[in-house]
Amino acid sequence: MSDLPAEKTLLPLQTSAILFDLDDTLHHRSKAFYGWASDFAQRYHDPAKKAEVTAMVRYLVELDNHGYRPREEYFTDVKRKYPAVEGSIEQLIEGYQRDVIDHIILEDEIMLLLQQLRARQIPFGIVTNGVGYQQKRKIKRLGIDAYTDCIFVSKEFGKQKPDPAIFLAAARCLQKPTQEILFVGDNPEFDIWGAHQVGMKTVWVHHEPRQWPEQISPEVADLTVHTFADLLPVLGLQSEKDEENTAVSQG
Fold this sequence. Notes:
This protein folds into 2 domains: 7-28 and 105-250, Rossmann fold (3-Layer(aba) Sandwich); 30-103. It is 48% helix and 10% strand. The chain is built from 12 helices and 6 strands. The protein has helices at 7-10, 29-42, 50-64, 71-81, 89-99, 108-119, 132-142, 154-157, 164-174, 188-196, 228-234, 240-250; strands at residues 17-20, 124-128, 151-153, 181-185, 201-205, 223-225. Helix 7 (132-142) links the parallel strand 2 and strand 3. The relative contact order is 0.16. The model is unreliable at 1-8 and 245-251 (pLDDT under 50). This is Haloacid dehalogenase.
């Protein structure tokens, strides 16, 4: 894919390509997990006992630790806390991986972002930690595989973020030097510091109430956004409302 002269004016920090994290960057992983946790909790409680359901959902979400708790440990603790939960650890993991997909949606802002990147011939890809088949099921569910085939999943690749190897492999896939790539992600260590150490520019997607870790210099995040919608103007792209206003003014 060749660059058009106009491309270089669209992206900040003199970059010409983008790499994205997946969970809580290209989709609301936290929303999807909450939806799964709500369904799961309701299996084991009388719907009329809302306080008990709410307490279990809160426990399931906190224990998850934004997806960084290993699933074996996670469901071992869930069964210890709630003995009524049925099935082996393996069966619970399989059920979770199957059912959570139903709660994943592609936000309008992300769909517009991907469409505009493709329309402007800006190359982009995905670098995500996780199990290959599970992450690719999410990508397929979101329809992102229709926009790029530059997709790197840690378990499949053999290295996980923040290991430099997975970032460098993605840069080769995009056929761009690392200093021309903008990495967008929500995890300060795996995404932002990992990309920074190989020379990429970075955008931190800051979801409250997560905080920046003290052991990492905040300077490794070149830019910070707080919502998916914020990505559009930061990347020099238009929101749907802006596009409508532009069309009206041109008409």
